[in-house]
Amino acid sequence: MIDLTLPSGEQIPHRISTGLGACTCSYFYPDNRHLIYAGTFQSAEFNSNVTLESCPQKTCKSKRAKTDPVLRKLCNTSYTWDLFAGFDIFKVNKFGTIVAQLTSSPGYDAEGAVSPDGRHIVFTSVRSGDPEIWIMNSDGTEPKQLTNELGYDGGPFFSPDGTKICFRASRPNTSDEIEKYKALLSYNLVSPLAMELYTMNVDGTDIRKVTSLGRSNWAPFYLVDNYRIISAATLIRPHLLANLIFT
To answer: Which PANTHER family match (predicted)?
Structure first.
């Protein structure tokens, strides 16, 4: 994880992660002196002579994908994201010093964002058995599940006034879609090719679907008016081109 905000006189961005494992989904606190990110460094396995190998291997690139017929078929017929079980969310200061580990449940905890007042963190977790949106205090206490519908729910962000959350989600409906979704999830995988955007109140009520494009929609973020959302979508050539859209 690299901090691109350069103090006066500095020209080289500095690393704020440990240098081990994989990192994702960083977000600054309102004080701009602390931030969160998800990392796998605690569960990293590596050869001390080659530390780059500490990153978890993508499931569809693993030896198992060649020997397991079910996994091989899933990998050959799907574009997938890995939900690495080693991901947890950490709070660090601007120098990268770990201040606190905020999650420790088994499985994937990542995709976190801090509320505008710095009091809460919204994130994605599989602790309930399905990737759902959760919210917790900024110190990691009192986690609460906000979504509870079959499908991947992820990439949540607060509205500027802190009253709403936008996120992306897949909703398998047919028996074939549900079967494939559950099969992928059994390998800690999801396929992001059919996701729509949703909003909800910060307490999980009033969930509303705001797109019905039938393609991959992701990276939603509220504009300053607390009403419009900017996002990316594969509208022209699925799987190849992302377009910024307003909803």
So the answer is: PROTEIN TOLB, PROTEIN TOLB HOMOLOG
Instruction: Identify whether the C-beta of residue 1 lies closer than 8 Å to the C-beta of residue 15.
Output: yes
Tally of CB atoms within 10 A around 188: 18
User: Contact 166/154 with Cβ under 8 angstroms?
Assistant: no
How far is Cα 132 from Cα 11, in angstroms, rounded to an integer? 40
Query: Per the structure, how many domains does the chain have?
Result: 1
Q: What is the dihedral of CA 21, 113, 140, 150, to 10 degrees?
A: -90
Residues 116-149 pLDDT 10s: 999 999 999 999 999 999 999 999 999 999 999 9
pLDDT higher than threshold 80 for residue 236: no
What's the count of helices (H) and strands (E) in the chain, helices before strands?
Answer: 3, 19
Element holding 184 (H helix, E strand): helix 175-185
**AA identity, residue 190:** V
| Global confidence as pTM | 0.90
Amino acid at position 32, single letter: N
Question: What's the pLDDT at 16?
Answer: 86
Domain membership of residue 119 as a residue range: 2-246
Q: Rounded distance, CA 92 to CA 101, Å?
A: 9
What share of the chain has pLDDT > 70, as a percent?
90
Distance (Å, whole) CA 119 – CA 105:
21
Domain containing residue 237: CATH number: 2.120.10
